[in-house]
Each structure stands twice: as C-alpha cells, then as structure tokens.
Amino acid sequence: QVQLVESGGGLVQAGGSLKLSCTASRTRSIFNIAAMGWHRQAPGKQRELVAVINSGGSTHYADSVKGRFTISRDNAKNTVYLQMNSLKPEDTAVYYCKMMVGPINYWGQGTQVTVSS
C-alpha cells in the first residue's frame, strides 16, 4: 500500500514562507508516472485543490495561490514539494498530499499550516 508522509507545516506570520514536503513510499516505482497534488482543508470548509504537477512537470494552481506557491517534484527522492511564499491568514488549513495513478488516489495524513495576522 502506498504511503504518503507530509512534513514542513507549522506556524508562520503573514508574509512569511513555508516549504511542505511529501515523500512517497511503497510506490513500486509508480511515483515517476503519477501526478502529484496538494490540497487543503480549512475548518468548516471543503477540501480544495491547491496545486498539481503531472509526470511531465506541467503544473496547475488554484487562482488563490498563483504567483505565491510553487509545486515541484524530485522523482529520485519520490518527493513532491510546495513552496509557499507571501502567506496570508486565509492560507491557514490542513494541507494534504495526493498521488494520482490513473483512477486511483492516495492521500497523506495532512500537515497543519497556520498563518497568523
């Protein structure tokens, strides 16, 4: 069973930066062909897409984070990153990593990001 472990969350002041990491294990060499994404869920709200990167390196971002967040991947390390700059209080949420292989999705356990004003 694929396992995804996120790290890098924490408490930061508005305007600050954080870099999230998500490392996949037990992937049976499928990480290279998988699309990887970051989603987030704030209290009382639905989980929403933040950013996606496909196996070829093409990226897509939610409008709310364009120009501030950057998704990247290191296939040699089975790891996807989310660099978050110019953080705002509204970015506060639990951030989840997702691996997409065809119709199958795998999720991490989430990491809390809190942005204070």
The portion of residues forming beta strands comes to over 45%
Task: Assign the structural class, choosing from mainly alpha, mainly beta, alpha/beta, alpha+beta, or little secondary structure.
Answer: mainly beta
> How many distinct helices?
0
What Rg do the Cα atoms give? Answer: 13 Å
Describe the largest sheet: 7 strands, mixed
Terminal residue distance: 40 Å
Helical content, roughly?
Answer: under 10%
Order of helices and strands: EEEEEEEEEEE
> How would the global form be characterised?
globular
Number of strands: 11
Unreliable sequence segments = none
Tell me, rounded to a whole number, the average pLDDT.
96
Write a structural description.
Strands 2, 4, 5, 6, 9, 10 and 11 form a 7-stranded mixed sheet that branches. A 4-stranded antiparallel sheet has the order 1-3-8-7, with no helix packed on it. 0% of the residues lie in helices and 55% in strands. It has strands at residues 3-7, 10-13, 18-25, 35-41, 48-53, 59-61, 69-74, 79-84, 93-101, 104-107, 111-116. The radius of gyration is 13 Å and the shape is globular. 31% of the residues are buried. The mean pLDDT is 96. The protein is an all-beta fold and 117 residues long. The N and C termini lie far apart (40 Å).
